[in-house]
Amino acid sequence: MKYKNKQFFIENLSAEKIAKKFGTPAYVYSYEKIRNNILNFKKNFNTINPLICFSVKSNSNLKILNLINKFNLGADVVSKGELTIALKAKIKPDKIVFSGVGKTLDELKFAINKKILLINTESENEIVEIEKIARKNNRKVNIGIRFNPDTDAKTLKNISTGKKENKFGLTKNKFLEILDKYKHSKFINIICLSVHIGSQITNHVPYKNMLLIINKLIEKSKYNFEYIDLGGGMGIQYEKNSNKLNYIKYKNLIKSFLKKNNSKIIFEPGRSIVGDAGYLISKIIYIKSTNSKNFVILDSAMNDLLRPALYGAKHRILPAKLNKKKILKKHEFVGPICETTDKFLKVPKYQKLNQGDTVIICDVGAYGMVLSSNYNMRPKPAEILVNKDLAKVIKKRQKLSSII
Ligand SMILES: *Cc1c(COP(=O)(O)O)cnc(C)c1O
Q: In ligand 1, which atom is closest to the CA atom of 367?
């Protein structure tokens, strides 16, 4: 556990101390955790030597992206904004892939102009537009084509992306038709087949099915893709004893896939790099006791952390200071926003809490701050990076005046 003398620590600083110094709510990231996650990810896959493109949509803080660059990862971006900030973090264009179903003309022109590694296209209309821009510039533009393998990722329904009813990618027939039509284009260079079947995947079987289906498609296409982009989706443990993705099994599946296909693998991990490295430090405003439960009303809300309200995600909530007094009553941790879904977690019992106590919402490094909003005219929280004894503000708390 991360407790020392009953105090919750992030690296060498207690959550209490951080809360006092920077105020709450505050997103706090551990440098060491991010570094270890990156090193572990690399180690898990070192025998297949992939290009690892961090999914910027999971966390787009510039200082975090600086770290991503420092450890030599590339980036997977889904908008002009993300591409701009990835370049600002000095991530090399030839390590950047651009994904997404609805890139505008302006975004395509921008990406082509920056000479990124490839644009992962998701429709024929998009390829038509790219070809027009490329012809105008007398250039050959590298693209990938996203395939929808109709594979069940066995994750939350709303973060599943690889089923045929989802808007992402192209079906097998359309994929083959487009490949045939554009493989001899003077302005388009199809170098990649890409897939991304969903997020928070904790079992290797969906990946196994995905690889089998891709393999069949490649056989049928008789085309040699320089890159196979397998997307991200590797899950993390949001609860203590929840399932864990078996990286060795996944790696071995890819290894045997590569025996038949001479391609370079691209990964686009987001959550598995930053998810468990982030904490949302909050304070208890009030505890409202009813006959059936205690409502623990926090100063952070769904505008700060949307995942529970958006798709029923669960994040553990830990006290900054442990005590031995158990209260055998239901506790529901909620935010102050005027929405019934503004609630974080329900537990059957909890230690004794008091107004003003600090609590820590765990594993919020991915899809946390990036999904925050100003709903209820609430300024966005501060972001802090902790490295050993040092805590640095990496994004200031938003000022109320800046949203008026
Ligand atoms: C969201 C997304 C990712 C990252 O997914 P994680 O589950 O955070 O690893 C990668 N690729 C694409 C295309 C995505 O949309």
A: 8
Q: Are residues 44 and 186 in the same domain?
A: yes
Q: Give yes or no: residues 260 and 316 share one domain.
A: no
Distance CA(395)–CA(391), nearest Å, equals: 12
Do 136 and 227 sit in the same domain of this protein? yes
pLDDT at 362: 98
Among all chains, which residue has been given the structure tokens 């590569």?
258
CA 55 to ligand 1 centroid distance, Å: 6
Q: How confident is the model at residue 1 (pLDDT cuts 50, 70, 90)?
A: low
Which residue among 272, 300, 325 closes a domain? 272
Report how far apart, in Å, the C-alpha atoms of 402 and of each of 181, 377, 398 are: 50, 11, 7
Query: Which ligand 1 atom is at minimum distance from the Cα of 232?
Result: 9
**Boundaries of domain holding 383:** 2-28+275-403
Same domain? For 48 and 181 the reply is yes
Is the model's pLDDT at 163 over the cut of 90?
no
Q: Which residues of 53-67 are buried (b: 16+ CB within 10 A; e: fewer)?
A: bbbbbbbbbebbbeb
Q: What is the pLDDT of residue 200?
A: 94
- What pLDDT is attached to residue 130? 98
156 pLDDT more than 80: no
Tokens of 258: 């590569």
Please state the domain count of the chain.
2
Q: Note whether 219 and 246 are same-domain residues.
A: yes
pLDDT digits (tens, 9 = 90+) for 62-97: 999 999 999 999 999 999 999 999 999 999 999 999
Binned at pLDDT 50, 70 and 90, residue 157 comes out as confident
Q: Give the global pTM.
A: 0.97
**What is the 59 CA–ligand 1 centroid distance (Å)?**
11
pLDDT of residue 173: 95
Return the SS3 of 160: strand
Q: What's the CATH code of the domain at 390?
A: 2.40.37.10
Q: Which of 241, 272, 303 is the last residue of a domain?
A: 272
53 is catalytic: no
Bridge partners (DSSP) of residue 143 are 119, 190
Catalytic residue of the set 53, 192, 338, 362: 338
> Do 19 and 52 share a domain, yes or no?
no
Residues 320, 359 share a domain:
yes
Q: What residues contact residue 23 under an 8 Å CB cut-off, 6+ apart?
A: 382, 397
| Residues 256, 374 share a domain | no
